[in-house]
Automatic annotation (TrEMBL):
The active site is at 59 (proton donor). It comes from Maribacter arcticus. SUPFAM superfamilies: NAD(P)-linked oxidoreductase (SSF51430). Residues 25-267 form the NADP-dependent oxidoreductase domain. Keywords: NADP, Oxidoreductase. The record marks 84 as: Lowers pKa of active site Tyr. Belongs to the aldo/keto reductase family. One of its GO terms (molecular function) is oxidoreductase activity, acting on the CH-OH group of donors, NAD or NADP as acceptor. Substrate binds at residue 117. This is Aldo/keto reductase.
Length: 281
């Protein structure tokens, strides 16, 4: 593990390799409807103290996300907003156009982080050049990738001017991929998890029940705390204010090294989402 991360409170952050502070706990919006549901979820999360909101063009809810941010009444500069370019829009010119369309839907003048959603073969290098251009134009504060395995990153880094600042991956106790985490740490690429609860499947496994009892916390809280203590940014998705609140109640306890090693040991390569080496969309 890299230097032990400093974890303070809901608005704490990890520092990206360009110096930008990225809040280490965010609200995911995958499968949140583009209506009052996502607006209320974001306003509620921001009211609780969340300052990191993750969306994507493919989620088709950027308008609702932007509305929720605006209606929260919090200064835009205090919110870390992330979106992603979808596979159909990859390529240089098409990525520039897709970025502008995402900004328009969000009603924002810039993004804090923009990611390549999936490593589309033959396209992601041109897409990355577009992200580097947008970063140079100060339209994005940080740029990164999602679902890139080590060989994708190595291939991209052979030709890129800027090393990705973030790699957002499926990450949970059954899919740790420690070698990839280590590679990202060695190259100052911030690791971030999507689907930290395996889209809810992790709760049926009962694998973390003993840890939950030990710390008097929920399984969800244990897993999120594990993310942060491993230096991994987490963006659990929910539209229910009680769960959004509960997911943020992870700053009054600490997992031991033994606890972390136990969770790491559950790795069996099981995915709840697509394989970055074998997706067809």
């Amino acid at each position: 593990m890299k230097n032990k991360p400093v974890i303070t409170d809901i608005q704490g952050s990890f520092t990206l390799h360009n110096g930008v502070q990225m809040p280490y706990l965010g609200l995911g919006t995958y499968q949140s409807d583009n209506d009052q549901e996502v607006v209320d979820a974001i306003k509620g999360a921001i009211d609780i103290g969340y300052r990191h909101i993750d969306t994507a063009a493919a989620y088709k809810n950027e308008q609702g996300v932007g509305k929720g941010i605006k209606e929260s009444g919090i200064d835009r500069k205090e919110i870390f907003v992330v979106s992603k370019v979808w596979n159909d829009n990859q390529g240089y010119e098409s990525t520039l156009k897709a970025f502008d369309e995402s900004l328009n839907r969000l009603g924002l003048e810039y993004l804090d982080l923009y990611l390549i959603h999936w490593p589309v073969s033959g396209k992601y290098k041109e897409t990355w050049k577009a992200l580097e251009y947008l970063y140079a134009q100060k339209k994005i504060r940080a740029i990164g990738v999602s679902n890139f395995l080590k060989h994708h990153l190595e291939d991209l880094m052979k030709d890129c001017t800027i090393v990705p600042m973030v790699n957002q991956m499926e990450f949970h106790p059954l899919l740790v991929q420690q070698n990839l985490v280590d590679f990202c740490n060695e190259n100052s690429i911030q690791y971030e998890s999507w689907s930290p609860f395996m889209q809810g499947k992790v709760f049926a496994l009962h694998i973390c029940n003993d840890l939950a009892k030990k710390h008097r916390k929920s399984v969800a809280q244990i897993i999120l705390r594990w993310n942060l203590q491993k230096g991994v940014i987490a963006i659990p998705k929910s539209v229910h204010i009680d769960r959004i609140t509960s997911n943020a109640d992870i700053f009054d306890f600490e997992l031991s090294e033994e606890d972390i090693n136990f969770l790491d040991s559950l790795e069996n390569g099981q995915r709840s989402g697509p394989d970055p080496d074998n997706f067809n969309f």
